[in-house]
């Protein structure tokens, strides 16, 4: 047992979950994601059959149906990548802060990235996708540091409730700043307002490829932090006693989450609540061991965002609801339930 703790592992979950049952859930999650991806390319304002889907996957666009599928493929890919990034970032943030209410949206990270992008576009003429992403990452990092510092002030340090309140207050302030920046700029207001809702419509392979290296770096940093997050879950003093460099462990994991949030926000806009809902649901399936929780949150986030995109297309035909709106409908009641029933306990 001591050896397992020293390695940052949990030999067996308190609820009796075994690695065998976790592998079964993993296979089920992957099967669900594959089914949702097929549904995503098939469902929309125009229904298409399997023959057209197969033809479009082969690169054929001879019919309207095949052309519709060709447009939905990059959209589905972006939904998978963005959902994976947000689900994983949420799990990492909850582990780093030991805060069950941690989420890129609630902690103000998404709005920080949004404000940075809007300022870059309005004041500095940022236009390239690469510059968008770097600007969003810097904004996300500064916002995360700011919220953590504010939440750490006073007695008791960075408690879950103080971090949540600091994040919500920061998000409101940043949203007001964004509005103040774009109001005088009618030339960019329409595009920025549409982007701020958060969505994957209009996705292209080129934009997704621009974000892919940043998402890959964030994914590797986050997944490689699983053992260190297990140590941090025992408390800073215990983690240090086991030989963990606490500050470095937190900084590495947080950097991975910032890369994921910044790149996703630059491409899709701010999408909230995925990083809050998914890790909690995954924790019910696989327990608190981050070696399992992080991969499951990655897959779960992809499932949630792809499903939200499909629901958005069906619910408002012939128009669409952006995924940011759908996830807000799901996440807001979940957040209220968390506050009322979990009482903001630490992890």
From TrEMBL:
Localization in the cell: Cell membrane
Signal peptide: none
Pfam families in the record: FecCD
Annotated keywords: Cell membrane, Membrane, Transmembrane, Transmembrane helix, Transport
Gene3D superfamilies in the record: ABC transporter involved in vitamin B12 uptake, BtuC
Organism domain of life: Bacteria
Membrane-crossing residue ranges in chain numbering: 76-93, 105-125, 131-151, 163-183, 203-226, 247-272, 292-311, 323-340
Membrane topology listed for this record: Multi-pass membrane protein
PANTHER family referenced in this protein's UniProt entry, alphabetically: FE(3+) DICITRATE TRANSPORT SYSTEM PERMEASE PROTEIN FECC-RELATED (PTHR30472:SF1), FERRIC ENTEROBACTIN TRANSPORT SYSTEM PERMEASE PROTEIN (PTHR30472)
Family: Belongs to the binding-protein-dependent transport system permease family. FecCD subfamily.
Name by which UniProt lists this protein: Iron complex transport system permease protein
Biological source species: Pseudorhizobium tarimense
């Amino acid at each position: 047992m001591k050896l397992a703790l020293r390695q940052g592992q949990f030999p067996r979950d308190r609820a009796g979950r075994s690695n065998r049952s976790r592998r079964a859930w993993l296979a089920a999650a992957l099967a669900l994601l594959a089914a949702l991806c097929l549904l995503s390319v098939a469902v929309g304002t125009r229904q298409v059959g399997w023959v057209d889907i197969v033809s479009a996957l082969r690169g054929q666009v001879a019919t309207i149906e095949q052309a519709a599928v060709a447009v939905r493929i990059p959209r589905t890919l972006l939904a998978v990548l963005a959902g994976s990034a947000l689900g994983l970032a949420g799990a990492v943030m909850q582990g780093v802060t030991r805060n069950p209410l941690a989420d890129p949206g609630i902690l103000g990270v998404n709005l920080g990235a949004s404000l940075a992008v809007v300022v870059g576009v309005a004041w500095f003429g940022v236009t390239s996708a690469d510059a968008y992403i770097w600007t969003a990452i810097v904004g996300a990092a500064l916002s995360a540091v700011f919220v953590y510092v504010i939440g750490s002030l006073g007695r008791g340090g960075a408690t879950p409730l103080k971090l949540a309140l600091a994040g919500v207050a920061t998000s409101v302030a940043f949203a007001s700043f964004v509005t103040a920046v774009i109001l005088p700029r009618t030339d960019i207001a329409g595009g920025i307002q549409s982007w701020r809702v958060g969505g994957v419509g209009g996705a292209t392979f080129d934009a997704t490829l621009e974000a892919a290296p940043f998402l890959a770096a964030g994914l590797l940093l986050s997944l490689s932090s699983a053992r260190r997050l297990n140590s941090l879950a025992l408390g800073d003093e215990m983690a240090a006693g086991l030989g963990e460099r606490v500050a470095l462990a937190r900084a590495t994991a947080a950097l991975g989450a910032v890369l994921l949030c910044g790149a996703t926000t630059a491409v899709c806009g701010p999408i909230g609540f995925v990083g809050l809902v998914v890790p909690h649901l995954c924790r019910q399936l696989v327990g608190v061991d981050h070696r399992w929780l992080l991969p499951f949150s990655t897959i779960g986030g992809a499932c949630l965002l792809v499903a939200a995109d499909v629901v958005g297309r069906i619910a408002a035909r012939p128009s669409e609801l952006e995924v940011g709106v759908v996830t807000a409908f799901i996440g807001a009641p979940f957040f209220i339930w968390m506050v009322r029933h979990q009482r903001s306990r630490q992890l």
